[in-house]
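Bench notes, afternoon.
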Amino acid sequence: MSVYRDKRSPYYQFDFQHEGHRFHGSTKCTSRRDAEKFEAAELEKAKALVRATRRAKASLAIDDVAGRLWNDSAQYDSEPKATETNLARLIEYFGKEKPLTDIDHTAAKDMVAWRRGHRVKRRGKRTKEEESALPLVSNATVNRSTTKVLQRLFSFAKAEKAVFENEPDWEALLLDEPEERVRELQDAEATAFDDAMRADYEPFFAFVRASGMRLKECVTLCWKEVNFGTKQIVRTGKGGRRVVFPITQAVREILFPLQGRHPEFVFTYVAVYGNKRLGRVRGRRYPLTYNGAKTAWQRLRTISGVADFRFHDFRHDFGTKLLRDSGNLKLVQKALNHRDIKSTLRYAHVLDEDVADAVERLAESRKKSRSNIRVKGLS
């Protein structure tokens, strides 16, 4: 091992081999002593990489691991485009050739800090001033789009028998997230939505409220997933899990009349304007799209005047009312397709009134018991 000067660069270069693998590059150092220290550190990294690669029997370059993860499972995620974007962001940040063995806790922490400086994206063209005025991405976005994605790459490589000596401390990297609020729809707000509703969107929003399903799950609902005979909707939900939802009488009354409007998709809308580029003809029905549903929701919320209510709050409203009616957390967990009961516990506050009533009944019972004892003592 030795470092050397290249006439074309002001920095010392390193070039060595370890177990048949060549490692070379710039030290970014102008003094020999610093360059030799840099090379020694690179040698230790090389040893760790060779050990991990030997166990995994595959390249541990982040681009290669991401490619194998994609082919193995990531392409089948419920939102593969989002997964692809998140993986590409990490590869761009670290560089295609960056081995996972080089990504320790400090490197991952720097990555988190970099991602926290990003701003949310909005559709449409904006000036630099307008872009800079957009809010920063949330802690939840950083956790889900960056930290957990990198952790997934490490987990995949470890499943391939790679062993990491300096794996990041994932729990320490996760940013604090505010506890998700649970918003319930009030009667007056429901009436306001109904009054502002466009007729062709009524079945879609009625189903959203009656099922508690997520936006994407509702939009992409297909007739092949709806079985009126067995009274069940069977489909793949978040995380690739099988979701079975009962077709109640209320759900049947929403869905049954929609048959024949489209051969594949359940929910449709009527085109108000024609569009030659998209092949849209005014007055005809077309399948509802994810972006179309979001636009319709934004318009509905504006016209209705209902404030501080997100689309996802329809799901919270469903869970809250179902728990209040049933008092059964496990039942609500299954209805909402929650993998972990902890996600369902956010609705537990609706049982506070039941707890208060039970405590009150207990107090009244004890009060009567004490009264009976005093009466017997006097007689």
